[in-house]
Design brief:
The protein is an alpha/beta fold. Helix content is 45%, strand content 14%. The chain is built from eleven helices and ten strands. The longest helix has 21 residues. The radius of gyration is 19 Å and the shape is globular.
């Protein structure tokens, strides 16, 4: 108990220090933000995994930046109460959780059902999944995901499939997968930079336009535009046209979560201070082009 209290005390100090530094942050793009004054602010989350080996204080840092939402791994059933208490203490809401299963086996359906039940306990709407099929026939995986969609619906959850090969490599494949599964509780998690990482010469804005009708959650991540280049800097430091990207979202009435994802740059080791700065710079950049809550 003393260790838990000490951890919360340290986290509280981090939160207070950061809140003061972000208190004056506002939308710097006056034309863009004025046009959105009559729109509901989007919910901005930060991915806990962004903090790498510094995740222990990551939640406190996220809260200290003035954010209200977090994306993190789905806790195990026995961890739910402790995680919920920690988030409540930091005024954070778990808005998207990462799930895990092996879609090449029939056990995946019950595996995901158990995860959906944990989501329901937490009041969580979105479960993220990187849908790897491990050489299983696509038709079998589609059927499993369709049945998983039924289990998700039973728990008022939407299963969102990541922009990863080979069921979500790009917009065309996302659409192919969505049409094959044909379930309203199985949707797309659109990862901006993964479009560039896996597809040479792709335009994330055009890719989003193509599959926007299936997009339920979004991860904003920057990139240098080179095929399979591990270059994921702070937002605004790469080639992604985020103002146009958000325009597409707004034009299509998107109201789902926006999650910041920053995975670093190959060959560059970030300290904890570097990591925090990348998150803070990303938040400030987004706040300069869009309105969030």
């Amino acid at each position: 108990m003393k260790m838990i209290c000490k951890q919360y005390a340290v986290q509280s100090l981090i939160v207070l220090a950061l809140v003061s530094s972000f208190a004056g942050c506002a939308c710097l793009n006056e034309n863009a933000c004025a046009a959105r004054n009559d729109m509901e602010p989007l919910r901005l989350a930060c991915r806990l995994a962004n903090y790498g080996k510094f995740q222990e204080q990551g939640l406190a840092h996220i809260s200290g930046m003035g954010l209200n939402y977090v994306f993190m791994n789905l806790p195990k059933a026995e961890e739910v109460d402790a995680v919920a208490a920690q988030l409540k203490a930091l005024n954070l809401e778990l808005i998207v959780a990462r799930g895990e299963t092996n879609l090449s086996t029939d056990d995946a359906i019950e595996d995901l059902r158990g995860q959906f039940e944990i989501c329901k306990t937490l009041g969580l709407k979105y479960l993220f999944l990187s849908p790897k099929r491990h050489d299983a026939p696509k038709e079998e995986v589609y059927e499993r995901l369709r049945k998983a969609g039924d289990a998700a619906a039973d728990n008022d959850v939407i299963l969102v499939l990541e922009t990863h090969p080979d069921l979500g490599t790009n917009a065309a494949i996302h659409i192919e997968t969505m049409k094959a599964i044909d379930h309203p509780n199985v949707r797309v998690n659109f990862d901006v930079a993964n479009i560039l990482y896996y597809n040479e010469g792709a335009d994330p804005v055009e890719e989003l336009k193509a599959c926007i009708d299936y997009v339920a959650t979004v991860e904003v991540k920057d990139h240098d535009g080179k095929l399979e280049s591990w270059f994921f800097p702070a937002l605004g430091e790469g080639v992604v046209d985020f103002p146009d990207f958000f325009k597409v979202l707004r034009d299509h009435g998107y109201t789902g979560p926006i999650t910041i994802e920053v995975e670093g740059i190959k060959g560059i080791e970030w300290s904890e201070a570097d990591t925090h700065k990348a998150m803070e710079d990303s938040v400030r950049y987004l706040q300069s082009i869009e309105t969030f809550k």
